[in-house]
Specification:
Chain B: Belongs to the LAMTOR3 family. Chain B: This is Ragulator complex protein LAMTOR3-like isoform X2. Chain B: It comes from Limulus polyphemus. Chain A: Keywords: Endosome, Lipoprotein, Lysosome, Membrane, Myristate, Palmitate. The complex is a heterodimer of chains A (about 160) and B (about 120). In chain A, about 45% of the residues lie in helices and about 0% in strands. By secondary structure, chain A is mainly alpha-helical. Chain B is α+β, with helices and mostly antiparallel strands and about 120 residues long. Chain B has helices spanning about 1-10, 45-55, 95-120, and strands at about 15-20, 25-30, 65-70, 75-80, 85-90. In chain B, strand 3 (about 65-70) and strand 4 form a beta hairpin. The chains are: A mainly alpha (about 160), B alpha+beta (about 120). The interface of A and B includes residues 73, 76, 78 and 85 of A.
């Protein structure tokens, strides 16, 4: 068993020659300085000011949207002071009292079904006698027959001729 | 207005209280019977529900409109009518569907109260 190891610097290859340790993408730190616009930033304020403001506003907007959309359960401990609670309750009472004077109750929709106050009493009452029921039915039948027998009796002419020569 | 709330409460069996509060739990209009649980009428409880409603609206399913919480003895229905919150406390055996249907009857009243609260 053995180990093949060398800690000598590679002095054989010349500086700049590509070898197995040459990075393909180059130095990421030095690469950022080659971006267009960054040279100008370092040299003095040629970077457009309004573009910076737009980026800042976009960042603020993203931050605000994220804060709005984040579900934060731990923020549920807002406590109202007792005096503030009482003050606000009193203010609401005053405003509600002022509003109540102008308030009109919404019109109830007309309904054929009405609530009975004592349903057990009404449902357990004795039904109407059969004799009364027969009387009601015969009276209704007579009324219907009388309506059907209504006829128009023709007495005189409806169209009258005026004495026009 | 309180009389109107009591009339609405008499329509459905099992309703113990109807509260219209702001987001901090301060009652704007309250109608409650003696059987209403006192803990459910406290601002701490109502504030928590208001915040839960707001946070529930961030779950990606749209704004939360109603929350129904059914407990062992009671059920609590909340309608989200920003900046107000309508809360109804009823027995757990009450008809939940009819309670949810009361939203339409309370909408005109809540609209008038919103104008009173918005000024503050």
């Amino acid at each position: 068993m053995g180990c093949c190891f060398s800690n000598d610097d590679d002095k054989g290859s010349q500086v700049g020659d590509p070898h197995e340790r040459t990075t393909l993408l180059g130095n990421p730190v030095s690469n950022s300085s080659t971006r267009p616009g960054c040279d100008d930033y370092g040299s003095g304020m040629k970077y457009p000011h309004n573009q910076r403001a737009d980026e800042q506003s976009a960042l603020n907007r993203i931050l605000h949207e994220t804060a709005t959309n984040v579900i934060d359960v731990s923020a549920m401990n807002s406590h109202l002071e007792q005096h503030e609670y009482l003050d606000r309750a009193r203010q609401y009472n005053q405003r509600v009292a002022a509003t109540a004077q102008k308030y009109t109750y919404p019109q109830k929709r007309p309904s054929l079904l009405l609530d009975l106050p004592a349903t057990e009493k009404n449902l357990s009452a004795s039904p109407i006698p059969q004799k009364d029921l027969k009387l009601l039915k015969s009276a209704c039948e007579n009324a219907v027959n009388a309506l059907q027998e209504i006829k128009v009796q023709h007495q005189e002419e409806l169209v009258v001729q005026f004495g026009i020569p | 207005m309180k009389k109107y709330l009591h009339e609405i409460m008499s329509q459905i069996d099992g309703i113990h209280a109807v509260l219209i509060t702001d987001r901090d739990g301060v009652p704007v209009l309250k109608a409650a019977t003696e059987s209403a649980p006192e803990l459910a009428l406290r601002p701490g409880f109502l504030t928590t529900v208001g915040m839960a409603t707001d946070q529930a609206g961030k779950l990606g399913m749209g704004k939360s409109q109603r929350i129904a919480c059914i407990y062992g003895k009671y059920q609590v229905i909340h309608f989200n009518r920003f900046p107000l919150m309508v809360s109804m406390i009823a027995s757990s055996t009450a008809n939940t569907g009819m309670l949810l249907g009361l939203e339409a009857e309370l909408s005109s009243l809540v609209q008038d109260l919103k104008a009173a609260v918005d000024v503050i």
